[in-house]
Amino acid sequence: MGTRVTLHKIMRLLAVRNAACSVVCPRHFGRCFLQSRFFCSSTNQATQHNQDLNSPSGKPVTELSVRSFIDMGFTESQAEQIYESLSSVGGGVAKHVLPTLTALFVLGLNPSSAHKVLEKCPELYSVKETQLQQRISNLRKIGLVEGSLQRVVVHYPRILTVPLKRVKHVVMFLKEKCLFTSQQVTDIIRDCPAVVLEDLNQLEYKFQYVYFRMGIKQAEMVKCRLFRFSLDEVRCRHTFLERRGQYETPDKKGQTTIVNPKLDSVLNVDQDTFLTHVARASAEEYDVFKRLVSREWREEELQQGRIEPDSDGDDDSDEDEDTGGKSGYGKKRKK
């Protein structure tokens, strides 16, 4: 009965959503019409589905057909790709497929967007419906409004695989450790959703580096989408400018003897633009610098006990969700 009940649930939820869209928000009629294709098709073929989704013994069948996905509004090609993905993911996930699609449709995604999400993140097939709903609800509580929420999910669907506790922990970390406002945290999650999976030690180190060494305040960090960039990217470009005398750490009053380039011009440009218009250096100079500074930073870490001498540099950020793992620059010194 489980699969059949979920199909009926999708139909009911989409019917309610379609009715709401047609009354409250007429400009979304096109999207609602697309979703209603699934509702109408499924209603007309309910008897056939009941036969297809149940084995002769009366037990639910764990696999869906390409036809059933087409009835939901997916193109034949998309339906085939979803069906093949289910086969590659392995057993035990089929029971979550329809609840996952329910959550995505009710979120407001059309079949094309839902397909894109599942193509990017097949792990969503394994997420329970209650977990999906809780995670989507939490993103709304963080401040992601309609439109922004859907864009985040389509751009970075992996955010729906992250445990609720982890996301809340990162949000509190950004507020309490980095002193971002609630609105700034919302903007960070919207523009840099991968931050929810970043190692918290490295996240704190990156924030402190940019705040104290570069003299950049929170508002500019958010505006320049700092957390899209790795710590090494930030350090490398800043250190290159610093050693060429083109960037100074502000004093206690925030003053410098030169005009530092804006963070946006340091990070939000490709390497050629950075070298030509900001550093005014050649690619050869920068390549040599990167090799030398990489060796220098590694020696520093070895001396301070942050990495093992035979370490291959791989991180295990999933080892301890609450403490942010034990990777990167924030490792404690060995006793």
Give the helix/strand class.
mainly alpha
Query: Uncertain regions: pLDDT < 50 for 5+ in a row?
Result: 20-62, 311-335
Radius of gyration: 25 Å
Portion of residues in beta strands equals under 5%
Q: Oligomeric status of the shown chains?
A: single chain
How many individual helices?
17
Name the helicity range: 55-70%
Q: State the order of secondary-structure elements, H for helix, E for strand.
A: HHHHHHHHHHHHHHHHH
Number of strands: 0
Rounded average pLDDT: 79
Shape: elongated
For the termini, the CA-CA separation is 58 Å
Question: For the report, how would you describe the main beta sheet?
Answer: none
What descriptive keywords fit this protein?
335 residues, mainly alpha, 17 helices, 61% helix, disordered C terminus
Q: What is the compact description of this entry?
A:
Helices cover 61% and strands 0% of the residues.
Please give a structural write-up.
This protein is mainly alpha-helical. The protein is built from 17 helices and no strands. The chain has helices at 2-24, 29-44, 46-52, 66-71, 76-89, 94-107, 111-120, 129-142, 148-155, 164-176, 182-191, 200-213, 218-223, 231-243, 263-267, 271-279, 283-303. α1 runs parallel beside α6. The longest helix has 23 residues, at 2-24. The chain is elongated.
